[in-house]
Design a protein that fits this description.
Length: 203
């Protein structure tokens, strides 16, 4: 019988099968690694987008703080004794909260952004009811600025300082936020922004 007509031996078949299985395993491993990396990247983008959206809302709100539609004196939250605060945004660094008010076409709005440390979420509350410095920043009602079913806020800090020039004094607010996914804390982010308040009138 001609050797050219011979089929594969059992050993050759086993070797070929082994090589095939190894190749499939390598390809599968590369595919799985790529899938996991792409999935993690999509979760990171989701987290980054949520944090960016929260910062955008806070920044837009803070820049409106103090605005009065009549063009009169800057709107500020009042102290319990009725004396106006010096700043357009009331900052409570001790409990990581911002509170402020501004006029809109639909009336005056009193807004608050605060960190709920117990539930690890960033709370936003808006109301037409007047608030003062002693009634602001109480964690009740409102809603989470980040998708609370998937995201936990691990840190939220506010630093405030006054900045002065020859013609006016203003307020600089630095906000730092750190967050991670609820079921995978390896997917995390930490960002900060600085906002210079507007609508400031010297008294």
């Amino acid at each position: 019988m001609n050797s050219a007509n011979k089929g594969f031996s059992l050993i050759e078949l086993l070797i070929a099968s082994s090589v095939g299985l190894i190749a499939i395993g390598v390809v599968g491993s590369v595919f799985l690694s790529g899938y996991q990396a792409a999935n993690k990247r999509s979760l990171e983008l989701l987290l980054q987008q949520d944090v960016n959206d929260a910062f955008r809302l806070i920044k837009e709100d803070v820049l409106r703080a103090g605005y009065v539609s009549s063009g009169g004196e800057t709107l500020r939250l009042l102290l319990p004794n009725g004396v106006s605060k010096a700043n357009t945004v009331y900052v409570s660094a001790a409990i990581n909260c911002l509170a402020y008010a501004y006029d809109t076409p639909n009336g005056r709005k009193y807004n608050e952004v605060m960190y709920n440390k117990q539930d690890k979420k960033l709370v936003y509350r808006s109301s037409k009811d007047e608030i003062r410095t002693d009634t602001a920043c109480v964690i009740k009602g409102g809603y989470s600025l980040l998708y609370e079913k998937q995201i936990l806020v691990s840190d939220f800090k506010i630093i405030e300082k006054e900045i002065s020039s020859a013609s006016a004094t203003s307020q600089l607010i630095k906000i730092t936020l750190a967050a991670h996914l609820k079921h995978d804390d390896s997917v995390s982010t930490a960002k900060s922004i600085q906002i210079k308040t507007r609508n400031w009138h010297n008294e």
